[in-house]
Amino acid sequence: MEENKNNPIEDHHSQLTFCNVKQTRLNEQEENTKAPVNPLENNPLNIDFNKIATNAKTKLDTVVKTTDSTNQFTKEDIEANRIKALLSYVFAPIPYLDKNSSPFTKYHACQGMNLFIVVVGYFLLRIILTTLIKEQQICAIASGNEIFCRMTPSWVLIPLNIIGLLLTALAVVGVCNVLLGKAVALPLVSKLNLFKIES
């Protein structure tokens, strides 16, 4: 029988390959165990980012934070005047000017009037901006010829549409509060205090 003799060159090559694979795995483990680098550690301007974030959150909370005054109204008042209070977010002057409105209705009527004034201001601003700011744009192509007309650019319309959607969302929130029998101040609008919210 012939004896199987190992080639020393092949053995050496396989040992080197094994060592390289093992070293690669060790390097990968070291990279995975390294602590993540904080991008804010190198701060040459010495800016306190935590303080800035805290101040921004505090200011945002004061603007968006709302108060719940539901406990100030009786269940009978809420149940009996829920439908009438809904008018506050459809056409607020009707329940607001009604002297026989209940406290719950009056609360939502005052909020509705604040929102109503903001909506009127929004539409006036929209009319002014869309009338004054015009750009010449292609509005049609007929027989291979481009027809130009003056139109309000998208950089004016997009922000106006976003504001309109936000105002609509506020009205929807008001309607939901009435349907749920709650007296919760609307974000942003309640800060105006154009009309005193009577409780």
Q: Which structural traits does this protein have?
A:
199 residues; mainly alpha; two-stranded antiparallel ribbon; 8% strand
Helix content: 55-70%
**Overall strand count:** 2
**Major beta sheet, specifics?**
2 strands, antiparallel
Structural class: mainly alpha
Major sheet: arrangement of strands: 1-2
Spell the H/E element sequence: HHHHHHEEH
Question: Uncertain spans, ≥5 residues at pLDDT below 50?
Answer: none
Strand content: 5-15%
Q: Count of helices? A: 7
Instruction: Indicate the mean pLDDT.
Output: 78
Q: End-to-end span in angstroms?
A: 108 Å
What does this protein structure show overall?
With 199 residues, the chain is mainly α. It has a domain at 67-191. The chain is built from seven helices and two strands. The protein has helices spanning 8-33, 49-64, 75-80, 82-86, 93-97, 103-132, 154-179; strands at residues 135-142, 145-151. A two-stranded antiparallel ribbon has the order 1-2. Strand 1 (135-142) and strand 2 form a beta hairpin. The termini are far apart.
